[in-house]
Design goal:
Elements lengths: L1 E9 L3 H19 L2 E6 L4 H7 L5 H6 L5 E6 L10 H7 L1 H7 L4 E7 L12 H4 L3 E7 L11 E4 L5 E4 L6 H17 L4 E5 L5 H17 L5 E5 H10 L6 E4 L1 H15 L8 E3 L10 E3 L18 H13 L4 H16 L17 H17 L1
Parallel strand pairs: 1-2, 1-3, 3-12, 5-10, 8-9, 8-10
Antiparallel strand pairs: 4-5, 4-11, 6-7, 11-12
Helix pairs in contact: 1-11, 1-13, 7-8, 9-10, 11-12, 12-13
Bound molecules: 3-isopropylmalic acid (IPM) and magnesium ion (MG).
3-isopropylmalic acid binds next to helix 5.
Length: 369
């Protein structure tokens, strides 16, 4: 089996961390027979200045033809000079919609290896293995009407619309239930149904899908503000967490505290499967462009490397390879490799490249075992 991947390094620390993920992929090509054709394409503010568009129409079209897209990061001060229309044309939100990747998976792991850097107690993070399933193509991010306009009373008025239709809720609910079933786990569905009608519908539909199609998967509903508290108080109670676009965005950053740093968090965004079972897929670290540390060689590459692990599992269908990569990351952390964001009390600090070197070192070791 051979696969195709497009890399969009993007802005800020995006190019630094995706380069390290590609180095790791090289290792898998060389040592584990993974056949992936990698194509780099321009994306972002620098791309706009060179080619007049954040992303060309041609590349945009190809994103839905390849097996996987690895995305670095977007945003930062360079965007100030990019006109609004060009920003919209190439925005990450447009890419997510264009690829129809409605299911965003954000795994959150409690790393005992990082117990000394995480602000939560070691016993609170021990054994945490949860999956946030965030709806990514709808909700308040895309609802209309939207915008800022002049009111008749002369005031400016800003509007966004939280809207979900039944089928959108059904498909993300089924995706999350399937995952919970596969994991032999349970599900929490997050909403604000005590206030928002849209989330009353969300809760009703999730409840119905659960009762009719997944009676073996235990389902609990949780109101979002309580959920935010529970994620920090006792994260182990969660297995699969289903949330809408905005709550999933917020709760996944919050859950980053469990893994020690936003720099540790990977993500995968998937479309529905076509007739051959193939899903369009976008892989991106959760952290964003971090312009304050860009170009210094100190960004944590593990979010990108663990996003690659998700691509290896979900798009290149090689769970064993994904498994040894995840193990190599843990072993590198256990051996003391730390970028500044996860340094804690450790005296030695690795840069972006050294962290990857440490992972490659562990991959060699595990591969030879
Ligand atoms: C994320 C990010 C994005 C989002 C931004 C960059 C648009 O915060 O992927 O979590 O809000 O979805
Ligand atoms: Mg976010």
């Amino acid at each position: 089996m051979s696969f195709k991947m497009i890399v969009l390094p993007g802005d800020g620390i995006g190019p630094e961390v995706t380069a390290e993920a590609v180095r790791v992929l090289e290792w898998f090509r060389e040592h584990r027979g993974l056949v992936v054709d990698v194509r780099h394409e321009q994306y972002g503010a620098a791309a706009y200045h060179q080619q007049g568009a954040i992303i060309t129409d041609e590349v945009m079209a190809d994103l839905i033809a390849v097996d996987a897209v690895l995305f670095g990061a977007t945003g930062g001060p360079e965007f100030d000079e990019v006109p609004m229309a060009a920003r919209r044309q190439g925005s990450l939100l447009r890419i997510r919609r264009h690829m129809e990747v409605f299911a965003n998976l954000r795994p959150v792991i409690g790393y005992d290896e990082l117990a000394d850097t995480v602000s939560l107690k070691p016993e609170a993070i021990h054994g945490v293995d949860m999956m946030i399933v965030r709806e990514l193509n709808g909700g308040i991010y895309f609802g209309t009407p939207r915008g800022v306009a002049q009111s008749p009373n002369g005031m400016e008025r800003g509007v966004n619309t939280l809207v979900y239709e039944t089928p959108e809720i059904e498909r993300i609910a089924r995706f999350a239930f399937d995952l919970a079933k596969q994991r032999g786990g349970h599900m929490h569905s997050i909403d604000k149904s005590n206030v928002l009608e849209c989330h009353q519908l969300w809760r009703k539909v999730v409840t119905r899908v659960g009762a009719e199609e997944y009676s073996e998967v235990p389902l609990e509903h949780m109101i979002v503000d309580n959920c935010a508290m529970q994620v920090i108080r006792d994260p182990k109670q969660f297995d699969v967490m289903l949330a809408d676009n905005m709550f999933g965005d917020i709760l996944s950053d919050l859950a980053g505290a469990i893994s020690g740093s936003l720099g540790m968090l990977p993500s995968a965004s998937l479309s529905v499967a076509d007739e051959n079972g193939r899903r369009r897929a976008l892989y991106e670290p959760v952290h964003g462009s971090a312009p304050d540390i860009a170009g210094q060689g100190i960004a944590n590459p593990l979010g990108a490397i663990l996003s690659l692990a998700m691509a290896i599992e979900l798009s290149f269908h090689s769970p064993d390879d994904a498994g040894i990569l995840r193990q190599a990351v843990r072993s590198a952390l256990a051996a003391g490799a730390r970028t500044p964001d996860i340094q804690g009390g450790h005296p030695t600090t690795a840069g972006t490249t050294e962290m990857t070197d440490a992972v490659l070192h562990e991959l060699h070791r595990l591969h030879d075992m």
